[in-house]
Amino acid sequence: MLKLHQNYLVLLLLVLFISSCKEKSASSDADAETEEELVQRALAIHKEVLTLDTHADTPLRMIEPGFDMAERHDPNETGSKVDYPRMKEGDLDAIFFAAFVAQDIRDDDGNTRAKELCLQMIDSVITSTERNSDIVGLALNPEDAYSLEKEGKRAIYIGIENGYPIGDDLSNVELYFNKGVRYITLVHSSNNDLADSATDTNGAEHGGLSDFGAEVVAEMNRLGIMVDVSHGNDSLFYDAIALSKAPIIASHSNARAVTDHQRNMTDEMLKLMAENGGVVQLTMLADYLREAPPNAERDSAIAVLRANMKPIGEMTKEEKAALRQSFQQVNEKYPNPPATVTHVADHIDHIVEVAGIDHVGIGCDFDGGGGIEGVFDASEVMNITIELVRRGYTKAQIEKIWGGNLIRVFKEVQAVAEKIQS
Amino acid sequence: MVLQWLFILIALGFSKPEATHPLRLSLCEIEYSSGKQILSINLKLFLTDVNEAIVFDPYSKELAFCQPNEPAKANKMLMEYVNQFFYVKANGKKVELKIKRKKLSGEGENTALWVYFDYRHPAPLSSLEIKNAVFTDLFFDQNNIVYVHVNGKNKSMMLNKKTPVHKLKF
């Protein structure tokens, strides 16, 4: 018996030795690859895999009078980060447009207005997909992303960022589902009636999920809407993951061990996410990607401007306007050192290490503050793939990161809903 | 010179961190009902943005809005700025904005200044033209969301540097 074990051990060592030689050889080949070849290989992968971004606040843009998603916009002039031409340029196949309603007063009036704004934004997305049906399609189910990609169209999914427009009426969840909503971020930057936020300056109110929030999660499970815990405080994460019958998502969150921000997720949370079968979608918000280094040159220049200011009461309107321009010029001259795709890949590496390759994705938060050097708008998302290829990620791994993982969760959420409804 | 360096040190200590609130946002709500014949307008602005626009320092305590030590000049300075970047025209006539009340909500970086205006307007209200370009002189990507509720009908829009003005007809 012992001898048999020894034989197996020798065989195992031999297999490990051969496979390590193979890896070394592959690595040598990779070393020989020029930068141009690497980029070409990465771009080919980027084109072949489904690329899905789970979070853009573009519906807010869509209620700007005259804003046309079919036109290309200059992000430096308009602030706009997503339109259909730039999705095509960046080979971004699918996106979740999140109807974002900023938290406001939590009473009947506030709830009614939040619902109306939310519905207006959802209708704007639907109208936009109808008007541009030659290049995009409204997507409702996981497989729609692939079928629309085959047709050469971008897939447009709908989410809601902030459960505030649900108000205190559970039936609104089904109303939004019927409109096409497939995930709901339970809370935003302040607590609401459903849940506690990670960034409410007044601290926790419900200790995570409220009783009504728990009902909303159950209803989302029943209907097949993904439960999104981004923006929630840690207790909300633990409540949602314990309560949800289906895997959950964080549509735009990063790793706290890499960047210490309360909006990011701890290693313990990442591990639980893996056990749950859920997915964390990396976001391109600079503050969540790296700690901003000091910017002494800019601060000194601004301090000099302030020190040389006339008393404000003695300034004319023209002098004030000129001074505002001077401050702007200083900010432009000494921008903060940027967050880059290197930071993005650092977070991905960490999540892969802690939770595994099956539990990470991309949710850029374009039009909601997202956009970094190299991934400033939808036209530049291929740079994420290039950095992943540079770090040795395979096509199969990149396919999971860029959409495969999210689609898997989406399918499971729908399967759970079918089971609950049957 | 010593004074200048003192200012520099103070400024370094209180320099604005990046992306205080990454999505540059303000809210405006306009409401009218023929029954009440009152056009009510309120603006919800981040206090750091207000301070940066008026006194060039996001963390300035000089204007002390809604505090017992709010100086008499605070409202005047606020409206001098607001009137440059915001207006409402009812039936083609510009509404004279007089502050009815103000309040603060939230804390720290998220502190918001609410400014309420009331304007008596006889029915019917046939059109509203709204300009909302507040803080677009500071931030090229400022988003100003405007909610309009007139006689039970609602319409919301986002105004910004590129599209600062919009007219609604009823």
From TrEMBL, chain A:
GO biological process terms held by the UniProt record: proteolysis
PROSITE patterns, A to Z: PROKAR_LIPOPROTEIN, RENAL_DIPEPTIDASE_2
MF terms in GO: metallodipeptidase activity
Signal sequence extent: none
Any Pfam family the entry gives: Peptidase_M19
Protein name in UniProt: Membrane dipeptidase
Organism: Poritiphilus flavus
